[in-house]
Design brief:
By secondary structure, the chain is of the alpha/beta class. It has two domains: 3-101, Winged helix-like DNA-binding domain superfamily/Winged helix DNA-binding domain (Arc Repressor Mutant, subunit A); 131-303, Rossmann fold (3-Layer(aba) Sandwich). Helices cover 51% and strands 13% of the residues. The strands form two sheets. The chain has a five-stranded parallel sheet with strand order 5-4-6-7-8, sandwiched between helices. A hairpin with a 2-residue loop joins strand 1 (3-8) and strand 2. It is elongated and about 75 Å long.
Length: 309
C-alpha cells in the first residue's frame, strides 16, 4: 500500500493512491503531535503517520504490530516514531486514543456533569441554554453560507440525504420536507440496501446533504470522501466537534448543541433546517404551490378528505 503524505495547518489530508481525502472530524491530540514534528519524520515514519491520519487517530483497535504492518515499517521504527511524538510507548498513545473515543458518549457526559457542583435540572436552565445555542450558532453560520446551501440544493440533479445514529431522525425529517418542495430526493441507505448501491448512479450535479451531529461513525467520513471525490457537492449540518470544511463544493453548517443535561439539544439544528427550507420554498416560488396541490390531491384520493388533522 503506497501513501503520499501531506499535512497543512489546521486541516489534515491523506493522499492514498493519489486520491485526496478530507475529513470532517477535528484532529486528535495524536494527529496534532504528528503535525508538529512532520518535517522531522523519516520516510518510514511518514508512512506510519499517513496510516494514523487515515484512521483519524482512532488507533485503539490496533496493536503496535498491526499498525507497523499496515504502514510497511518495522516495530522498531514504530517505537521510535511514538517516542518522537512524546509518548513513553505505543501503549500510552493507544490508551489516550481509547479515552478520546468515548468523549461525547452519554456515559462520559453523565459522569462529567454529575461531578460538577450546581448542576441544575431547572427547566429555565434549558431555555436559557437554547438561547445561548441559537446566538452562538448565528455567529457560526452566515446568511451567505445558508444562501449558498439553498442554491446548491435548488440546482441539484438528485439530492442524497444521510445521517446515522441520532442524526437519522433529523435526516428523515429533512427528506420529508424536501420531498414536498422538489423531486429526486433520496434518503440513504435505502432499507435493505447499502450505500454503495445507492451511490452507483451518482452524477456530477448531485448533492449530498449530511446530518453529522456527534457521535459520528467512521463510515460517514468515508461516504463523504467518496461523494466529494466523484465531483458531488456537499452540505453538512454538524456541530463544533467537527472541523469546518469550506470550499467551492462544500458548505459546513455548524450548530451549537449544548445542554444542561446529559443529552445534546437538537433545537438549533432544527431551526437552521427550518430556515434553509424556507429559503428553498421562496426560491421555487409558484412551483411549490403546484406541488403542494398535487400532494394534497393524491392524499385525499388515497386516504380521503380530513384524514389528517
Amino acid at each position: 500500500m503506497k501513501y503520499i503524505f501531506h499535512i497543512e495547518i489546521e486541516t489534515a489530508f491523506v493522499f492514498h493512491k493519489g486520491v485526496g481525502v478530507n475529513r470532517m472530524t477535528k484532529q486528535t491530540d495524536l494527529e496534532n503531535r504528528i503535525i508538529r514534528v512532520q518535517h522531522e519524520l523519516s520516510a518510514g515514519e511518514r508512512r506510519l503517520a499517513a496510516v494514523i491520519v487515515e484512521l483519524e487517530g482512532n488507533i485503539s483497535g490496533f496493536t503496535g504490530g498491526e499498525l507497523s504492518e499496515m504502514a510497511g515499517v518495522s516495530p522498531s521504527t514504530a517505537a521510535r516514531f511514538f517516542r518522537r511524538l512524546g509518548y513513553v510507548s505505543y501503549q500510552e498513545a493507544r490508551t489516550e486514543a481509547r479515552d478520546s473515543a468515548v468523549k461525547g458518549s452519554p456515559l462520559d457526559v453523565y459522569r462529567e456533569k454529575n461531578r460538577k457542583e450546581g448542576y441544575s435540572s431547572d427547566f429555565l436552565a434549558y431555555i436559557e441554554q437554547e438561547k445561548k445555542n441559537l446566538t452562538l450558532t448565528y455567529t457560526e453560520i452566515s446568511e451567505e453560507m445558508l444562501k449558498k446551501s439553498s442554491d446548491i440544493i435548488k440546482n441539484a440533479g438528485k439530492v442524497y440525504i444521510i445521517g446515522f445514529r441520532n442524526s437519522y431522525a433529523i435526516a428523515l425529517y429533512l427528506r420529508n420536507q424536501l420531498a414536498i418542495l422538489r423531486q429526486n430526493i433520496r434518503l440513504i441507505p435505502a432499507p435493505g440496501e447499502d450505500v454503495a448501491t445507492d451511490l452507483t448512479d451518482q452524477q456530477p450535479d448531485d448533492v449530498l446533504l449530511v446530518v453529522g451531529l456527534r457521535r459520528r461513525t467512521v463510515t460517514l467520513s468515508k461516504i463523504i470522501s467518496h461523494f466529494h471525490k466523484n465531483g458531488g457537492k456537499i452540505v453538512m449540518l454538524t456541530d463544533p466537534s467537527a472541523s469546518s470544511w469550506q470550499e467551492e463544493r462544500v458548505v459546513t453548517l455548524r450548530c451549537i448543541t449544548e445542554s444542561p443535561g446529559v443529552f445534546d439539544s437538537y433545537a438549533t439544528p432544527m431551526c437552521v433546517l427550518n430556515y434553509l427550507l424556507s429559503l428553498l420554498q421562496k426560491s421555487y416560488s409558484s412551483h411549490v404551490e403546484k406541488r403542494f396541490s398535487e400532494v394534497e390531491s393524491i392524499r385525499n384520493e388515497i386516504y380521503g378528505t380530513g384524514s389528517l388533522l
